[in-house]
Amino acid sequence: MSAxxxxxxxxxxxxxxxxxxxxxxxxxxxxxxxxxxxxxxxxVAVLSNRPDAAGLEWARDRGIEAHSVDxxxxxxxxxxxxxxxxxxxxxxxELIACAGFMRLMTPWLVDQWRDRMINIxxxxxxxxxxxxxxxxxxxxxxxxxxxTVHVVRxxxxxxxxxxxxxxxxxxxxxxxxxxxxxxxAEHRLYPQVLALFAAGKYDxxxxxxxxxxxxxxxxxxxSPAVDVDS
Length: 230
Ligand code: GAR
Prior knowledge:
Layout: E1 14-20, H1 25-34, E2 41-48, H2 54-61, E3 65-68, H3 77-90, E4 95-98, H4 107-112, E5 117-121, H5 133-140, E6 144-151, E7 161-168, H6 175-198, E8 202-205, E9 208-211
Parallel strand pairs: 1-2, 1-4, 2-3, 4-5
Antiparallel strand pairs: 5-6, 6-7, 8-9
Helix pairs in contact: 1-6
The protein binds glycinamide ribonucleotide.
């Protein structure tokens, strides 16, 4: 288990494990952000359900404990979730950030980490839960797409919304060009939301997450661009 770190001029950093299934670009953005001395979270482990996830090697090279818990070696979802939970506990993690973790979780696992597990999803929830979000956004003809960071609940891609970023849908977009635009917004949004979450800046009341007054609301994004002064 890695040693505890403290925030520059403050208390203990929250110990965070990241769950991935693949390339791990969101994981990388969280790890890089967490290297700042004043970041309120410390990434203590990266776990994947796929042994070949590219992100595992990257994390190890960065000196982070990285393991796979191969879902294929378990008889069922419950057994896999129990093994994953055990591994998470062994890392001393206090929070979990899912970053492209493509496994459905049992309600039991979600319950173990209630209000301590967050996820990023590549759409403006509650629109386009599930897979193929960019194809579906293009088919629906929306002018704004984006990403959402939310607290994990047992129904897939639901839970209190902690943060969202919107990007324009451009004429001529394909699912790939839109995915790339959304992904770069994900890389900016997720580190900021994890920092606020780890610093205890949210209150969750009746499944609505509220941010404390000082933490700001950000600017609106219009598409097509609107002259707000006219
Ligand atoms: C990201 O776009 C993330 O939002 C999405 O998978 C991608 C993972 O990319 N997650 C989901 O669809 C979860 N429902 P990454 O491995 O490069 O971070």
